[in-house]
Amino acid sequence: MVLALNLGFPRIGLKRELKKSLESYWKGESSRDDLLKTGKELRLRHWQLQKEAGIDIIPTNDFSYYDHILDAACLFGVVPDRYNWDGGQIDLDTYFAMARGSQKQGRDVIAMEMTKWFDTNYHYIVPELKKGQKFKLSSTKIFDETKEAKDAGFNACPVLIGPVSFLMLAKKAEDFTECRCTLIPDLCNVYIEVCKKLAASGQNWIQLDEPCLALDLEDRYVQAYKDAYAAISKAVPDINIYVPSYFDGLRDNIDLAFSLPVAAIGVDLVRAPDQLDASIAKARETGKHLVLGLIDGRNVWKNNLSASLEKLEKAKAALGPDHVSVSGSCSLLHTPIDLVAETKLDPEVKSWMAYAKQKLDEISVLAKGANLGRHAIEAQLIASDQVAESRKTSRRIHNDAVQKRMAAITPDMAKRKSPFAVRRTVQQADLKLPAFPTTTIGSFPQTNDIRTARAAFKKGELDQDAYTAAMKKEIETVVRYQEEADLDVLVHGEPERNDMVEYFGEQLDGYAFSQNGWVQSYGSRYVKPPIIYGDISRPRPMTVEWSKYAQSLTNRPMKGMLTGPITILCWSFVRDDQSREKTAKQLALAIRDEVVDLEKAGIKVIQIDEPALREGLPLRRADWDAYLKWSVEAFRLSASGVEDSTQIHTHMCYADFNDIIESIGALDADVISIETSRSQMELLAAFGDYKYPNEIGPGVYDIHSPRIPSVEEMALLLDKAVNVLSPGQIWVNPDCGLKTRGWAEVKPALDNMVAAAKQARAKYKASNAA
Question: Using one digit for the tens of pLDDT, what is the confidence trace for 159-196?
């Protein structure tokens, strides 16, 4: 029969139980046992939920206390030397030090690098491969959690990142100059050991995710796939290997994928619906079990069950019911947990939506329809057809005024009045900033008082006047601190903002908002993406009064803080009934209006954050040019309505900039700030090689770690920056916003940052004098 499968489930808990337990543990307020108890409760709850939904085989080891790639690194013993690992089982303290850094008991160690998981807003910890890297089974997590599931009565299938994707997603240390494919034999020995232990316990299936099969592959990686799976399948013939790929189609890798000596191949038919026929043909040719990823694991819209069932029936007819299964397009990690928890969503918009629990039901319904016939799910098919028709005809979706404004966009609207060299001279005369000017990325710590006031305001327990007074008091505190710290360009601290995308979405037409639509961004950092269901417009200014008030408190330049159109697009659940390009340009027009209004209010420095620009890049190079063209146009459309004297900043983080450096240059922002501290300025090389002409703030303070970097540490990073860039280009700033940190960490870190900038300033002045 056709099976209902699931590639993975959210870890966080409906009420964010994991976040609360983690942060309590990190603060020393709860014990290791308390944290482990929370993890076990969540796993058992989520396994039961999947079983009750009708999922036939339950994934295990998809749960993580921080990140599944970090879990895999620990499984294989890939621990950088700086953590002083003793070679035994990796404990929680080492695990979290790798994820977050540590300054405990005289130990001062930086965290591992973090970057985006393909084109999602999930961040994974990047494994570090060193010269002479050896792999060793160093964690029992995959075995413990699979046994836990089986002991509780669940039909379990452990999930693990596949060997080639693991190596491709890792980074090489400077002394490791060989091809990482040379590590395949030794790494596969650990995979073989894992499979043998699982088989010995009675396990007959393992899921090895290979998302890199959706990428452009060099010949050496094609061979690595062949070698890796030949070695594993030969050594452990009594375990069935299921290899799903996701986030795009297999395309030219389809022959490779179906040639692997594995039992089942999974394909993403949401991102790449055109690969259905070729996948069926290859499955029939090779005898592979084919898993159709028909339910969108990355968005919140209900599935068109009639259309999906047609695809499933086609595969069943060609391959037979025992050779086909249905699943999500990828892990449901990227969707909120349960739509039932949403009691305030507009009923019409809610009727179009499905969260992870509802998506499990959709998977199960499709399997039932394929097995028993359409009549068995007739009611669900009728309801699904009604939803599809409702979204096509709803007047909530289409706005004639927005469509007319879109049609009136001209190329000149995406161009600044003068080139950068001219603007820079005007801005230097206006702003009068020193060399190595200091600033922050925007947000300051979100204290309990801030969150309490904001929550009370949303509940109606605090009126508008009292809320505004509370926020203004916090803004004044932040401004006064920045003056005392001697920062050069200030920010208002964003106390009124819950999230850098949700805050703007709440003030734009065409958006809906959830109460409990939380998804994991990294570690214990969860976000609640707003939901774009219709045409976007800005009915009124969104940030102007806050920035105007902050500027009134100081004579120093105050940055207006905005989120850019591509980041709002990528970090929202986006409508799927029009192109992303059209939605991005609607957002750009809304942000453009805000930029112009900020300038009119006297704000001379405006930051339009675009951390998701690289994230939105398609996985295949053949698709890059089209995306980069319209994404750059959208940013420039948002930024180009101002005078030369207004300095436009942007911010990007946790990305490989080499791939898009020309497009970053094409943004034509006056200043770009980037995350570089975890990579020790490695990411800056792309800007040096490109001879980037505008100004850059390479981050010198890793705000995702609780560490407080010293003056010397940050001064050393600035020295590295000066080796790549002209001193006159360099700004000094943290990697990212400070909202997740506490004041006890922020104040000394920023004090050290300013001191490092002044040292660099003095050194620069002395070298010029010489």
Answer: 999 999 999 999 998 888 888 999 999 999 999 999 99
Q: Do 362 and 296 form a contact (C-beta atoms < 8 A)?
A: no
CA atoms of 111 and 247, how far apart (whole Å)? 28
Q: What is the DSSP letter of 591?
A: H
Handedness of CA 605, 598, 541, 535 (dihedral sign): negative
How far, in Å, are 337, 366, 409, 622, 657 from residue 47 at the CA level?
13, 20, 50, 40, 39
Cα separation of 703 and 442, whole Å? 12
8 Å CB contact between 61 and 145: yes
Query: What is the rounded distance in angstroms from the CA atom of residue 628 to the CA atom of residue 616?
Result: 9
> Contact, 180 vs 167, CB < 8 A?
yes
What does pTM read for this prediction?
0.89
Helix, strand, coil percentages in the chain from 3-state DSSP, rounded to 5 = 50, 15, 35
Q: Express each pLDDT in 526-562 by its tens digit.
A: 999 999 999 999 999 999 999 999 999 999 999 999 9
Nearest CA to 678 out of 39, 123, 119, 1 is that of: 123
What span, in angstroms and rounded, lies between the C-alpha atoms of 324 and 3? 7
**Mean pLDDT for the chain?**
95
Question: Burial code of 514-532, b = ≥16 C-beta within 10 A, e = fewer?
Answer: bebbbbbbbbbebbbbbbb
Element (H, E) at 240: strand 240-244
At residue 53, the pLDDT reads 98
Residues 6+ away with beta carbon under 8 Å from 108 = 102, 707
Question: Which is nearest to 207 in space by CA: 5, 55, 364?
Answer: 5
- State the Cα–Cα distance between residues 696 and 704, nearest whole angstrom: 20
Q: List the catalytic residues.
A: 704
Look up residue 112 and give its two tokens.
Answer: 């591992």
Q: Which residue has the tokens 């200043």?
A: 671
> Which pLDDT does position 688 carry in this prediction?
84
The amino acid sitting at 484 is E
In this structure, are residues 530 and 501 in contact, taking their beta carbons and an 8 Å threshold?
Answer: yes
Q: Please, which pLDDT band fits residue 655 given cuts at 50, 70 and 90?
A: low
Query: Rounded distance, CA 84 to CA 96, Å?
Result: 13
Find the angle CA(747)-CA(751)-CA(752) to the nearest 5 degrees.
120
What φ, ψ does residue 58 adopt, rounded to 5°? -95, 125
572-585 per-position pLDDT tens digit: 999 999 999 999 99
Q: How many CB atoms lie within 10 A of CB 310?
A: 12
Q: Which of 474, 484, 372, 487 is nearest to 440 (CA)?
A: 487
What 3-state class would DSSP assign to 176?
A: coil
Taking 60 as the threshold, does the pLDDT of residue 770 lie above it? no
Q: How confident is the model at residue 458 (pLDDT cuts 50, 70, 90)?
A: confident
Do residues 309 and 285 make contact, with C-beta atoms less than 8 angstroms apart? no
**Beta strands 509-512 and 264-268, pairing class:** unpaired
> How many angstroms separate the CA atoms of 440 and 86, rounded?
38
Contact predicate 571/501, CB 8 Å: yes
Tens of pLDDT along 354-401? 999 999 999 999 999 999 999 999 999 999 999 999 998 888 898 999
pLDDT at 658 (0 to 100): 76
**Strand-strand pairing, 102-104 and 107-109:** antiparallel
Instruction: State the pLDDT at residue 444.
Output: 95
Q: 332-346, pLDDT tens digit by residue?
A: 999 999 999 999 999
